[in-house]
Amino acid sequence: MTEHEDRQARYDRGMAVFNEVSGGQGQAVIDSLADVSPELAHQTIAWGFGEIYRRPQLVPRDRQLVTIGMLTALGGCEAQLRVHVNTSLNVGLTPAEIVEAMLQAAGYCGFPRALNATAVAKEVFAARGLLPVDTGE
Amino acid sequence: MTEHEDRQARYDRGMAVFNEVSGGQGQAVIDSLADVSPELAHQTIAWGFGEIYRRPQLVPRDRQLVTIGMLTALGGCEAQLRVHVNTSLNVGLTPAEIVEAMLQAAGYCGFPRALNATAVAKEVFAARGLLPVDTGE
Amino acid sequence: MTEHEDRQARYDRGMAVFNEVSGGQGQAVIDSLADVSPELAHQTIAWGFGEIYRRPQLVPRDRQLVTIGMLTALGGCEAQLRVHVNTSLNVGLTPAEIVEAMLQAAGYCGFPRALNATAVAKEVFAARGLLPVDTGE
Amino acid sequence: MTEHEDRQARYDRGMAVFNEVSGGQGQAVIDSLADVSPELAHQTIAWGFGEIYRRPQLVPRDRQLVTIGMLTALGGCEAQLRVHVNTSLNVGLTPAEIVEAMLQAAGYCGFPRALNATAVAKEVFAARGLLPVDTGE
Amino acid sequence: MTEHEDRQARYDRGMAVFNEVSGGQGQAVIDSLADVSPELAHQTIAWGFGEIYRRPQLVPRDRQLVTIGMLTALGGCEAQLRVHVNTSLNVGLTPAEIVEAMLQAAGYCGFPRALNATAVAKEVFAARGLLPVDTGE
Amino acid sequence: MTEHEDRQARYDRGMAVFNEVSGGQGQAVIDSLADVSPELAHQTIAWGFGEIYRRPQLVPRDRQLVTIGMLTALGGCEAQLRVHVNTSLNVGLTPAEIVEAMLQAAGYCGFPRALNATAVAKEVFAARGLLPVDTGE
Fold it and tell me: Which domain of life does the protein's organism represent (chains A, B, C, D, E, F) (predicted)?
């Protein structure tokens, strides 16, 4: 396997992982970056998913809990949070667990970040017909 | 008083505080979260205003100076800053004091954050007919 | 139940939750703040653990995954991360899962944050005799 | 020279520097802040460009590399990044160098920040007819 | 007045302002940067205090409330927070008001930032013999 | 080339790049993480330097300008900044250029971040006998 072949292999592996958990959003990432930074698209997929996400040390559901925490804390990552709320639903987190993670965020990064993240979750849930959320209360 | 009654009491107290300083924005917060995370709405009001904001150790005007500093520094909190610029005006800060706090922010969190916050202030001032700001210069 | 009694009840509830998951660190939090900001200590325990953490919508293990993500992303929270790495071990996360969450963080908040968090994890694992971590590789 | 004259001199100097590197965007900054915070506009120009940017210790191209790194890392500075991607092109950075700086950012502040910055770069490049970027790959 | 003379005048003005509010810490700032970045020291004093802080639109006490909010929100600014807690006391904020501002911060930037800032306040209060804080509770 | 061989090849390539620009610090990174997160060490080297840093689209000197900007803006990355100030000197940035980049940072992320970064630079310069910095003033 040459370096070029390996590069392709990791990319293919990452694309398979990303498409599986994101419900087939891989091509959209590639397309949006094709004419400006194809290498960033490549690395998002090949490294982020082909190297890291696929590792068995954390199952996808658990990775999503960590990721929702990080994106909520960072702020200004609404586009990425949208993808990851969708992905979280795809890998088995419930709407109630997702909004609870964002409530937990209020105490660690403050209410504004928690409110902004929850607004993104609401949009995603609405688009998937998951409102109102049954939080068991 | 049962736990449930107390929970309601704190909420009622927080809603009264929030409505007073925000000019009646409490129901909008509740409504926006009702079908996605009612607990986040509850805690924003019951804890943020019923437990913390109402404390006498800082008057509302002073809390708003702190809060404008924090929201400007955090970045990506335009929605919350909009509420708090309005609230700041309601509790006695002048437009000139608000924009001066954001000018002070340039030195502590940089010009981009100061410029973004000032753009929000401008929107709020415009909606309330407070432009141009008389900064005494 | 008077307001004062309820305040105490929430605090007691939070202290029980925090002590259970943190291995009895509650008094240390209270002591460290007793002469400077007892209310901050009270709210950390009574609200953070007596209101939020105890909710059944996310089990402690899942809350810790979210929290590790947030503290890693925030940066500059080494003291809190130390408590939460300990807590994470107490509620069932393995060392391998914790460092994997921090590896995942490299892609979402960058390698410096991931490296700083992992250094804290290493300290905690060392103190508990958990090195070397068996990451299955 | 009186204090007032000096204040004007620094402003004029800053406006000349900013207009040269930004392609004449100075008046837009002044206009956008004229009725809300003229002092913030003044200091952006007089201090940011009349005092700092004009210093010979770093040439404009190098300042732009630093600035793109900072704005990408901060997040939530899309408006400022737009100005600075334009400025970067004006002072000699190529589109390929700009997107490479943002790819480098993926490793230091994470992919979400890198992706958001690259989306801004894409908009600017599109408006200037610079797509597709020739990254030499 | 030549450009050089004016530069000196602003610096002198800033040094007078900074020394007054900080209790004479100006020379320490200058000394610490003298052999590495004298221009950063100059601008901290000449711009930060000679241009901005001295403006009458906010009194020093109010600037300190904003600044405590910002430094708490930024995180990782313990050294600057130490100076500003001292300055806050010098310009009339009480220990109880300072810790209340940091309690308010818990809701806007999360408990970890609030706890870290309060730890700095505690150090400063201890050094000035101001513990325990009388928070009126 | 098998997947394992390729993994090793990227690592070797990254280690060569990192050692060249950092003056041989590669093994220290590996050693510090060996018993806690060897995969994080691997990816820091194999991906960060074997995939990204080695790309010809930006020369090392330019990557360091971007990186200094990012690490200064992030805050709380003193350990990484120490490595990168050293690396910056190794790849041709002068002490005067490095401190000027950090002065530029004052305007974009505020004086506290600029001051903290400059303190790290001062330590590195002192250890290499480069004080006082000749800033040409």
Answer: Bacteria
Chain F CB contacts of A5 below 8 Å: 1
Query: Rounded to whole angstroms, how far apart are CA atoms C84 and A3?
Result: 41
Among E36, E57, E78, identify where a domain stops. E57
Q: Are E105 and C39 in contact (CB under 8 A)?
A: no
- CB atoms C39 and B47 under 8 Å: no
Contact C37/E110, CB-based, under 8 Å?
no
Q: Is position F135 within any domain?
A: no
Q: How far apart are CA F72 and CA B29, in angstroms?
A: 36
Same domain? F108 vs F98: yes
Same domain for F53 and F67: no
| Residue-level pLDDT at E19 | 95
Please, how many CA atoms are within 13 Å of residue A39, restricted to the half-sphere of its CB?
A: 22
- Residue B21 CA, distance from chain mean position: 9
Q: In the structure, what pLDDT confidence band is assigned to residue E81 with cuts at 50, 70 and 90?
A: very high
- Residues of chain E with C-beta less than 8 angstroms from the C-beta of D39: 55
Q: Which residues contact F6 (CB under 8 A, 6 or more apart)?
A: A1, A3, A6
Taking CB atoms and an 8 Å limit, are D137 and A37 in contact across chains?
no
Residues F36 and F91 in one domain: no
Work out how many CB contacts closer than 8 A connect C with F. Answer: 69
Q: Is residue F120 part of a domain?
A: yes
Considering the entire predicted model, what is its pTM?
0.97
Do E9 and E47 meet the contact criterion of CB atoms below 8 Å apart?
no
CB contact under 8 A, C3 and B6: yes
Q: Which domain holds residue C11?
A: 1-57
The rounded percent of chain A whose pLDDT value lies above 70 is 98
- Residues E53, E68, single domain; the answer is no
Interface of D with A in 79-98 (CB under 8 A): 95
Q: What ipTM was estimated for this complex? A: 0.95
Q: How many folded domains does chain F comprise? A: 2
**Are A125 and A76 found together in one domain?**
yes
Q: Same structural domain for residues F46 and F82? A: no
- Best residue in F94, F118, F128 to probe E by mutation, most E CBs within 10 Å? F118
Residues F73 and F114 in one domain: yes
Listed residues D11, D39, D57: the one ending a domain: D57
Name the residue facing B112 among F106, F108, F111 (closest C-beta): F108
Minimum-distance CB partner of B103 among D35, D37, D70: D37
pLDDT digits (tens, 9 = 90+) for D12-65: 999 999 999 999 999 999 999 999 999 999 999 999 999 999 999 999 999 999
- CA quadruple F40, F46, F49, F51: dihedral positive or negative? negative
Residue A87 lies in a domain: yes
Helix or strand holding residue D32 (H, E): helix D26-33
CATH number of the domain where residue D95 is located = 1.20.1290.10
Contact F107 D135 (CB under 8 A): no
C137 domain residue, yes or no: no
CA-to-CA distance for B110 and E51, rounded, in angstroms? 15
Contact between residue F5 and residue F12 where contact means Cβ atoms under 8 Å apart = no
Whether C33 and C48 share a structural domain:
yes
